UniProtKB/TrEMBL annotation:
MF terms in GO: ABC-type transporter activity; ATP binding; ATP hydrolysis activity; ATPase-coupled lipid transmembrane transporter activity
The family this protein is said to belong to: Belongs to the ABC transporter superfamily.
Topology in membrane: Multi-pass membrane protein
Taxonomic source organism: Pannonibacter tanglangensis
Protein name: ATP-binding cassette domain-containing protein
Predominant place of localization: membrane
PROSITE patterns: ABC_TM1F (PS50929), ABC_TRANSPORTER_1 (PS00211), ABC_TRANSPORTER_2 (PS50893)
Keywords: ATP-binding, Cell membrane, Membrane, Nucleotide-binding, Sugar transport, Transmembrane, Transmembrane helix, Transport
Amino acid sequence: MRRGQGIGGHLVANVASLRRLPQLVASLWAAGPGLASAILVLRLIRALQPPAVLYVAKLIIDEIVARSAAGAGSFQLADLQQGGALSPLAGLILLEFALVAGDAVLSRVDRLLEQMLGERHANRLGAALIRQADALDLAQLETGEIQDRLQRARNQSVMGNSLLGQMLNQAQDAVTLIALVAGVAAFAPALVLLLAFALLPSLLGEAYFNSLRYGLDKEATARRREIDYIRYVGANARTAKEVKLFGLGAYLAGRFTTLAGSLHVASMALARKRALWGALFGILSALSYYGAYGYIAFRAVQGDISLGELTFLAGALMRLNALFERMILGLTQIADRALYLEDLYSFFELVPGVTEPERPLPFPEPIRQGIVFENVGFRYPGKEGWVLRNLDLTIRPGETVALVGENGAGKTTIVKLMSRLYDPTEGRILIDGIDCRAFALADLRRHVGVIFQDFVKYNFPAAVNIGVGRIEAVADRERMDAAAEASLAADVIARLPAGYDQVLGDMFTSGVELSGGEWQRIAIARAYFRDAALLILDEPTAALDARAEAAVFARFRDLSRGRTAVFISHRFGTVRMADRIVVLDRGGILEAGSHDDLMRRDGHYAALFRLQAEAFQ
Ligand SMILES: Nc1ncnc2c1ncn2[C@@H]1O[C@H](COP(=O)(O)OP(=O)(O)OP(=O)(O)O)[C@@H](O)[C@H]1O
């Protein structure tokens, strides 16, 4: 929201925010149509209860007044019955009781049903959010703006529940209000106008402040993310080592205080303004309320309305006053949250750029001609420089290729392109002559097994940590044993108290944390467990000790026989084992060939190889 937009602009934004409400209603309905209908019926009945109670009270008083007027004398218990049946007065009192007690019961049933529907809806939304995040491109998820939106959407998936209750309260109050206003209009039409005067300024004021609040929150999202991040870095087992040793505690606390303070100042300034105006509007509505009260008292004294009608009108006014207050507050909260619905639903409307082909071709099994990068260029969306440019590279079937190059040369990006985490900005990637965009994404990825250098350390049991490589086969112990054996993870598992069932990581109390190299063995097992035609390992042995590295690679060569394998490594002892080594520099290929070829050529690779070898002499 831009500053200086004026009240008109704010109101438009506020009304626009409500446009997402029908979507919320539809998804709530879809979560439980039966539950939703039952809730609506209950709310409607409860909405009509207050006017009914007031009306019965009016009848009771009129009945009592009529009795006194008829000179029936003081009221006796025996008066409760008349000719063997209940007297009209007793009947009315009983009815009043039934209305009040009935509402108490209905409100409990209603709350229960709403909780059921709310939880069901939140669960559905939570799952849908994960599916949508999965469908989006990695490049989309990596942008700060989408991360913000995702963060807000995550909050919303829980908030939807409170919105359900608020919307129903509002609808119920609206029905009660209409019924009460109709009742008031029947006895004293002039009062309705007076009430409208009390309502309008509050309504406009609230709408205005709602939009200001949203604008403020939106502006502050980036700062709030930074605050959350500082809170994470400052109070977290993972960062504690460095924070302690570098003495960062005071620095982080200071930065936190500065950022949180700036947010606090802005939000307090708005809260003060809002409180001031709220108080003024409150006085205005109190004035209207007492004006109306005086008016009906005067008419009663004049004898224009009966005592029963006076009771009804006074009761209705009191209720209407409370209802206005509540509805304005409710409207504020609904509009406020509805503005955030925009984040939720706009996240669901994001369309991935890495798309499925209309008529997918089957992935070649086995790969016969290989993988060809044809003049491939890649630039991150919204970024200036090219990460890869004019890249021509062929990976033959059954070949083991090592990608080497300095930090930032583009090695990981090549791997991401091969698995279609990104699509090339220019050029094509062909598998057996077919553009890889022609395969169904799931089919392509089923045939590719990638372990990234920043692989995920799942705080799940060891078996699942390996099984995620091919989750549908997670129960296949024979396959798991083979993968664990090949990756040297078997030794790690054997040492775990609960073996394969041992929860790993430090997130849960039952978890066992592993060393970097142990985690890496588990991750490599994941790749073997996947058993894909194309195996890609991005710095798979960086955390392994020398003996483990040699053992892993001896097995890697055995296992990758007959399948295509690509690995990235900065360790030339490992790299030299590849059939072909591709040296990358600033997004292009500098040289390529076997270790012996490249050493003979005496170029960049040979220089780097000697440099590393000398360091060990
Ligand atoms: N999500 C991203 N958004 C924008 N730029 C990125 C992103 N990820 C990587 N880059 C840039 O792309 C370039 C290539 O990165 P890449 O990870 O492919 O390099 P690499 O050769 O694997 O490096 P390393 O040896 O350090 O792992 C780098 O200059 C990096 O700054």
